[in-house]
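agent: user wants the full assembly modeled, not chains individually. Plan: 1) parse entity lines 2) check alphabet per entity 3) run joint structure prediction 4) return tokens. Steps 1-2 passed, two entities, 1254 residues total. Proceeding.
--- entities ---
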Amino acid sequence: MNPYTISLAQLDITPGRPDLNAAKMLQEIHAARERGSDIIIFSEMAVPGYLLGDEWENDSFINDSLSYNEDILAASEGIAVIWGNVYAESDKKGEDGRTRKYNAVFVAQDRKWVSNGVFEGHTFKTLMPKYREFDDERHFYSLAKVSQERDVPISSLLKPFPLQIGEKTHMVGTILCEDMWCEDYPINPTKILVENGAEMIINLSCSPWTWRKNDKRHRVVRSLLKESQVPFVYVNNVGVQNNGKNVFLFDGGSAIYTEDGYLHAMTHDYTEEVLDVQLGRASTATISDPELSDEQDLKEVYDGLVFGLRHFFSTLPTKNVVIGLSGGIDSALSAVLLTAALGKEHVYAVNMPSKFNSHLTKGAAAALAQNLGIHYTIYPIQASIDQTIDELNHLVFTSQDDSKKETPITVTPFITENIQARDRGSRVLSAIAACLNGVFTNNGNKTETALGYATLYGDVNGAIAPLADLYKGEIYALARYINQLKGKDLIPTSIIDVVPSAELSADQDVTQGKGDPIIYPYHDKLLRSFIEFRRDPEYILDLYTKETLEESLKIEAGLVKKHFPTTESFISDLEHKWKLYKINYFKRIQTPPIITVSRRAFGFDLREAQNGIHFTRRYKELKERLL
Amino acid sequence: MNPYTISLAQLDITPGRPDLNAAKMLQEIHAARERGSDIIIFSEMAVPGYLLGDEWENDSFINDSLSYNEDILAASEGIAVIWGNVYAESDKKGEDGRTRKYNAVFVAQDRKWVSNGVFEGHTFKTLMPKYREFDDERHFYSLAKVSQERDVPISSLLKPFPLQIGEKTHMVGTILCEDMWCEDYPINPTKILVENGAEMIINLSCSPWTWRKNDKRHRVVRSLLKESQVPFVYVNNVGVQNNGKNVFLFDGGSAIYTEDGYLHAMTHDYTEEVLDVQLGRASTATISDPELSDEQDLKEVYDGLVFGLRHFFSTLPTKNVVIGLSGGIDSALSAVLLTAALGKEHVYAVNMPSKFNSHLTKGAAAALAQNLGIHYTIYPIQASIDQTIDELNHLVFTSQDDSKKETPITVTPFITENIQARDRGSRVLSAIAACLNGVFTNNGNKTETALGYATLYGDVNGAIAPLADLYKGEIYALARYINQLKGKDLIPTSIIDVVPSAELSADQDVTQGKGDPIIYPYHDKLLRSFIEFRRDPEYILDLYTKETLEESLKIEAGLVKKHFPTTESFISDLEHKWKLYKINYFKRIQTPPIITVSRRAFGFDLREAQNGIHFTRRYKELKERLL
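--- prediction returned ---
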């Protein structure tokens, strides 16, 4: 046995900034060599970053990213370096007619490119994810396509790289992210590499956090290693990358697994860290998988949201944030997260009461601000609302044709609700944020984002939506978790206990227990079925008919019957919510970026079209049969 | 010779509504048979529509769309029917782990599925577009992948369908859209089909209008037919389809080409039409290609925008539209288009002067409203602005910690500009539109959308942006075209002649010739280089150094030197505009859908990430050398 050390470099990668990333990488290569490390491994697309939109079409950017490979090669004296970057062939075209590009891994040692017999110092990603937020197929040519183009089997292209460590040659197979998540593809790159002599598999990833993804990865690695018993190294970056509408959290989770698939070592979440691991010894210690529990899930979401907000604000000119504090649960949770992320000195809360806001919620908002120690003010909006309504009610249009017809306009109570929301979002908060050289947040949750229960240019405004990927029930769970974590009612219990309400009219008076027209414990689950599980009313009505709806959607037993005593009332609500979900995409088009934590978030992750509503023939038949 | 008739069914397809589309198709099949037609051809994805976002993941919707195939089969008594629909294999998985789906063409005749020896009554799209707005690779499995999976050559799968017409069997090769735009792929489906015996190629498309696309298609068809001399039929739908951020115009342009690539017959643009063509005669008449000219381009843009707006509004509850009429060119053009699309009785124009608006522009707004005969009113906003500024200047935040520190806020002149824009967009226009049960429009052009020269929650608001894919110079050209078309100054010349200005401060006083800080004839071209041609400052500086900038970007000779007499001033502006373009994506995330008419539009077409600014090493070297 010849012990040797590999360094898993879990860096915080800045997308679109090869200069910053390469500088950091060079520093870590030097430091690892100083520590006596034999191999240092960086993540997928460590040089350019990964979520860049169509910046991949900018050839100058590609060449710039590639130019740093020479610096890294030069720094590989006395150490092997494995890293992710883009590779380009300017003499070949991609299927879009542009410069052909690959999502590539590079391998250098002792200032030389290491050859795997097929490629000199690099190889390419084989499998191209194109679901959810991924667009690899749009930008990159794959090793699978090279095999098709050259008309050779993929196994003739997937070869390990020989690394010299002391006297010994280590055959190292390198793959990229999706290459390990291969169950729906006809190719298993890990298996082929091991068959081709790889004694170790290294996966370079740029893979965002999602619920229990680390656990799923552990299981996938185990399943891969059943067939191919070699140590498995996973290197992921930390940081935040976005494609505009979705802001993704990269937790890292870099790890090394024994050939049996046990965890040998793992980095800390959301931490920039280079983990040195000694290998090649007689026995390898193992560590347990992290526990799985609802509390662990909430901890990860909380940590992720705080990390994500801190990161997002670090890219802005100042860290100042303005938040409309209504005394409701959503803005309360948002204020807590922002304070944790940015510090109380950067958080400016504004309570903006109209005549419909209760003492209860106004007091709760003030109490929360006090608990957090943030800046606070009250900005009453009733006078402005009254003035606007008065002006509108006196407005008359005149036809500029011979008829000279006059059209007066009238403000209805419903319009008054939206005028209040827009006054807060577009008149008050926007201007205050500008005066403080800061931004403000959209505090909406996923349930109301789905149903459009929010006002465009009103409460949907903001630079970022921290909570828009959490259903209302998850908002409450996270609030309770935080109070438990802090060991005190940081979020006043009155905020958790009050009925959820927009307080935009007398019909939404919380002191009389009146609130939102949404049955959260049911509609959260119904919407999750539509959004995360891609279901529709036909599927739901099918379950309802079979009396398996509550079981299938994990709804509390008896809840459906309680709220919808008749089939008519159930169907009427089902159709109403499907319509709201579909139609209100027009608002989501214009909403801010969402910190993405679910398995399917609105935005670039769940791509929508403004196409109105459709019910299938089978739905209509089912409905007719039931009614 | 046995003459026979084929019918090119260029229908207005409603995306996401297989029920409506199938009903229309069935009606046209019956009518074509009545007229004695032998073959009727519909467009790609004629049943479900094409731009559906991720609705393709809803299995109920897929099954619903598929169910209409049985109705079409049953209707094919005495006629051959060729149409586009989705095909699904529920027993196989796509690479996303979901039900495997194909973009398919179906062929039935005399109530029987026609076999091509490989598939019974259907075949699949071979080439998957994944650039610009296209996401085929995300949703559909391709014939290319089937060939890989089955390990058989693609030529063994691409076979023509035998159609019986009278005594004769016609071998008809069917392809789908991208299959004809194959120059960047290793496979040419047309060539393979003809080699496999096809006597005619039929391309079913769902292909949006873009500048001179029809001309490009004529040339592509000719190039294909050089190798493979058979008649070529192209069937495209009309209508409007969107993916939220981009609204695409489908002009149709269905046509039949002779085996030499001459146009034999062509439908009318933007018209729902079934074109019957008699074939199989001794000689085939040909028609000339439509002329190519700047005027023809403007005509097509004008017709497309009016068609698109009419279509977009037909999906809304009412056709009422509110428009803020400033007296500037953008809102003037928008008002003209809306009036042409919806009728003057549906257009409500509002002039919203503050103290910075000149008599000149106020008068021009009124004159335009009069020319159009639309509803008009004036809503002064200065009092509201003054009130808001006064309130803000008295607002004080108090730290809710022991320091009790007070933070007053101050409204700067720049913030005052934005307060005006938000007052107009979010307080006045939003409420008026709600009162009229209508919507309002964003009238921004592409130049200001690129540079962020607009206020979020202010003038960027609206249900749709008709002009956001036209640079400022194109706005003027279209305005002049319309006046020429109408034979009068429908748009008052004062609007065309006045300096473009936001009129939000005394520094933007049009009566003193002060306007926008943008040199439109230069910056339009610079931005087009960034956006349409995917260039960056390195490329621009390279051209500048080589003194070929004006020539390459089609900028008026001498203009650059005139405005940027020194290299320093040129570079300073270049960097400033690149920064504005990149940073102001944060506004584009929250802007309305854009009617897409260029070769690259903001939104889902040009995918961006909020990643700040990067200059390449080579740019920095070039700059250093120059300065």
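agent: reporting back. Chain B has three domains: 4-292, 294-381+413-510, 519-627. Chain B touches chain A through 118 residues (CB under 8 Å).
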